[in-house]
Amino acid sequence: MAMAGSGVFGDLLEGEVYKYYSDGEWRKSSSGKSVAIINPTTRKPQYKVQACTQEEVNKVIDASKVAQKAWAKTPLWKRAELLHRAAVLLKEHKAPIAECLVKEIAKPAKDAVTEVVRSGDLVSYCAEEGVRILGAGKFLVSDSFPGNDRNKLCLASKVPLGVILAIPPFNYPVNLAVSKIAPALIAGNSIVLKPPTQGAVAALHMVHCFHLAGFPKGLISCVTGKGSEIGDFLTMHPGVNCISFTGGDTGIAISKKAGMIPLQMELGGKDACLILEDADIDLAAANVVKGGFSYSGQRCTAVKVVLVMESVADALVEKVNSKVAKMTVGPPEDNCDITPVVTESSANFIEGLVMDAKQKGAKFCQEYRREGNLIWPLLLDHVRADMRLAWEEPFGPVLPVIRITTVEEGIHHCNASNFGLQGCVFTKDINKAMMISDAMETGTVQINSAPARGPDHFPFQGLRDSGIGSQGITNSIEMMTKVKSTVINLPTPSFTMG
Ligand code: G3H
């Protein structure tokens, strides 16, 4: 079986440093420097990637501009054909890509494979959706607006934006990269990818699948390196025509510095799970566990606070605890439910939130336990609004429960958050659920299920500090285009009829 950095992926690696991808070739940076990627489980260096320079970024963007002009003129069906080919290659090479995800971000092995397969499906769907929505435009006539005759005909179609800068996060370095790359490409744009450091090697392998699919030189580039050297340089680069970013607070800084270009930003969440008195408690408990602890809570859509009606709180907490007790904790290679969090600083941050809750009197349902980056799953009951955990996202396997006495209290907590990504409500009363959905100020409300981004063609968006713009396949394709109109002005008077 092919391994990372070998077989068809052999070109990516020279010595022990992975190369970056520019103008259709794998290259070494002239900096002579590299960035080490620490394996979250062993806490030892696992891989190294090139520390690209600003000059190399300039070259990438120049090549990207040239390639985009030709690509925009490539027939839509041909663009789709190449994307379908890339999707097949991604799935064919799921094992070595998943291997990188396991080593770089400690994603459980099975979930790592799922991420790659999901990415292939996303790319195919994008190709299919693109040929349909980009193949149609609008035709308008002037006489519907007061004062106009029927002498102006407007043909409006969608044209590409140009060079798209894609910056995915560590938790889905492949899937949240292709969710930007595929819509950009089908719409006739070029792509400059800056992967997260943890996850960069998985992303480089994914990019190689696009290389093998035969996309034109320069159309896709992937630069790696230090944020301090090339981060601002990329996001403020005059050659970039759109930024699609998923990650944390850095996105807020980027949106303040970026020029007058479209931004698609997804910056995290504090998704609330509101559990009413009439909820199916078994269903709610199963979703609290899945939503709160899958990939050790390192998902922007994770359940990050449980708001449960006091009358059913004991029953819910008991059921959640019995499920938590059965969770396996350990290395991602063993497919454990809970694996080490991505970095030591993340683990320290999570620990800070736990200690704050301890000091302020939260009830620990399990003993707090940590070894290196591995934190055992922890449910904290009786959390109050003065505790940091009530508002901040741990991005780890730690879940606060706030007991409420009215539904309004729950909605108020949800809407008072800086974040507004998703929320969920558990009740058997669909009317109540709809009214709560209406009142919850979040991009999405799930009824009787934990928050989630997928299926990947669903709209996905956050309010307030959770971001701007809407994602999901269709919305991303639309967002990565602009409208171009051609107006045909007919002479007046026109032919008289009859
Ligand atoms: O971390 C942010 C992702 O968009 C969440 O995606 O709901 O599929 O885990 P997911």
UniProtKB/TrEMBL annotation:
This is NADP-dependent glyceraldehyde-3-phosphate dehydrogenase. One of its GO terms (molecular function) is lactaldehyde dehydrogenase (NAD+) activity. Belongs to the aldehyde dehydrogenase family. Keywords: Cytoplasm, NADP, Oxidoreductase. Pfam families: Aldedh. Its main location: cytoplasm. It is an enzyme of class 1 (oxidoreductase). One of its GO terms (cellular component) is cytoplasm. The active site is at 266. The lineage of its organism: Eukaryota, Viridiplantae, Streptophyta, Embryophyta, Tracheophyta. It is found in: Cytoplasm. Residues 26-485 form the Aldehyde dehydrogenase domain. Gene3D superfamilies: Aldehyde Dehydrogenase, Chain A, domain 1, Aldehyde Dehydrogenase, Chain A, domain 2. It comes from the Eukaryota. Its EC number is 1.2.1.9. InterPro entries: Ald_DH/histidinol_DH (IPR016161), Ald_DH_C (IPR016163), Ald_DH_CS_CYS (IPR016160), Ald_DH_CS_GLU (IPR029510), Ald_DH_N (IPR016162), Aldehyde_DH_dom (IPR015590), ALDH-related_metabolic_enz (IPR051020). It catalyses: D-glyceraldehyde 3-phosphate + NADP(+) + H2O = (2R)-3-phosphoglycerate + NADPH + 2 H(+).
